[in-house]
Amino acid sequence: xFRRIFSIAANTFRETIRNKIxxxxxxxxxFVIGMTFFLADLxxxxxxxxxxxxxxxxxxxxxxxxxxxxxxxxVSNEVDRKTIYILLSKPVRRYEFILGKTLGLSVTxxxxxxxxxxxxxxxxxxxxxxxxxxxGIFIASAGIYMELVLLTCLASLFSTFTTPVLSAIFTxxxxxxxxxxxxxxxxxxxxxxxxxxxxxxxxxxxxxxxxNFNWKNEVAYGGLKSFSILGxxxxxxxxxxxxxxxxxxxxxxxxxxK
Amino acid sequence: xxxxxxxxxxxxxxxxxxxxxxxxPVRVLTDLTCEVGENEIVGFLGPNGAGKTTTIKILNRxxxxxxxxxxxxxxxxxxxxDVRRRIGFMPEQPYFYEYLTGGExxxxxxxxxxxxxxxxxxxxxxxxxxxxxxxxRGTAIRKYSKGMMQRLGLAQALLHDPELVILDxxxxxxxxxxxxxxxxxxxxxxxxxxxxxxxxxxxxxxEALCDRVIMLHKGRKVAEGRVEELIGAETLYIxxxxxPVLPADLLAAAGIPSDAGYAQGPxxxxxxxxxxxxxxxxxxxxHEGCTIISCVPMKKNLEEIFMERVxxxxxxxMAS
Lengths: 258, 320
What we know:
The structure holds two protein chains of two kinds. Chain A is an all-alpha fold. Chain A has one domain (2-179, 214-249). Chain A is built from twelve helices and no strands. The longest helix of chain A is centred in the middle third of the chain and has 32 residues, at 94-125. Chain B is elongated. Helix content of chain B is 33%, strand content 29%. Chain B has helices at residues 52-59, 81-84, 102-112, 117-130, 146-158, 176-191, 203-209, 227-231, 248-253, 275-287, 302-310; strands at residues 6-19, 24-37, 41-45, 67-72, 87-90, 164-168, 195-200, 212-217, 220-226, 237-243, 261-264, 267-272, 291-298. Chain B has eleven helices and 13 strands. The model of chain B is unreliable at 313-320 (pLDDT under 50). In chain B, strands 5-6-7-3-8-9 form a six-stranded mixed beta sheet, with helices on both faces. A four-stranded antiparallel beta sheet of chain B has the order 11-12-10-13, with helices on one face. In chain B, strands 2-1-4 form a three-stranded antiparallel beta sheet, with helices on one face. Classes of the chains: A mainly alpha, B alpha/beta. The interface between A and B is medium-sized, with 25 and 30 residues.
């Protein structure tokens, strides 16, 4: 089973890494991150905050664009091009296909996120007025990467049953809502209606809480030094991604290919 | 129908697909029952929309039937990896990962089938040579022609040495040379003890290759049997080819109706309704100094059988 999953993952990695649009997005992201070197000159005194703020936000935004762009076509491209006919006629289970595709894309996103984080780290290190090695950039980038993996799982879930355009809309909606769930919970708790309070709690736990992976402010203010913070977020990612992937596999298990 | 061992059994298979905004089901396959025995070549015939590809998709788990069941190799678990490893499948107009080379694609297929690297490499080399793609092994698939894709599709279907080979329109997109090579490969598979189940529009290929045929029309089976049984032993007419071209007065002198023949270049073709007429005409023509070039009893071919069963020749979309 694992050999088949890894074979599909390796092929997906090869497919995504040869995607020219991915390189265009990555090149633009690296350019914007590199430009923070000059942007920091505009700030008064607190250059580190500008570099970390703008740089990490760039990694986040461009990472989401890559995850959504590649994730929404993860399954639908295989179906549209009918390459899935060959794969599934082999001794490959449908859940192995979904897991392999998601794993392959996650590896691609790991490389691109690391490349962006490394450039930001170098910009931060080489800044002419007191640049320093900021390990928090890698910690915050790891959080962003975990968020991207979760978005990939969500995009692949939507990709199993709807069109790429709708998948993109659903995934981006969950991305936006996922950063606002604590406000949803907070607002719900203010209500005098028990039903509203329960509904807001239900949605709070149902929807992904992407703020669990967000440590950009901590890096900007220099308060993020230990990798141990990743533990809780990784646990949340594993639990939530497992649920999403199970649902994807269930939906995909009985899908007819016309 | 009895076989020493049934490799594939289809029982009461029906399938509908939802269509349109209201997802109204449209029936594409109705109560299909048939069997394929060990070491048979079975042709699956039908016009466009007959349900051939839907049946083949169901056999390969790409679609699920509404009712009915498929039994492979006599077992219950048709989804098990062990069963899938014994089946090779080539879809209609196969499409592959265009960023891979032919060799890389076969390596991926070998990994998915659980083959060792060594086995994959040696089988790939043999099969690529067999389908005439040895020189294109390192070429990116995006540069392959339609015929080359078809050949690669055949190679991937045979890579893991399956017992049952299912081919959906294996001849489509191939030039006459390619068609002849594929026919040779299918015959080799039978000689190696494999079972082949393939769909085709090209009736002459089916007639030349198959032990049995199953004809499908509008989702229903309209005929099934051995090719020679379907064609039958009955002679339709006897075709005489004579030289030189016979003038009308000579025909009349020989007692041959004027509408029984036509000129074809320097030759004259006659259609005798039975052996008695043929013998009498030959004697008369020899007496008149003509040369008999050939005398062939003509039987129905598969295309005529198909047109009879389907009933609407203009709508079949078949090619001979």
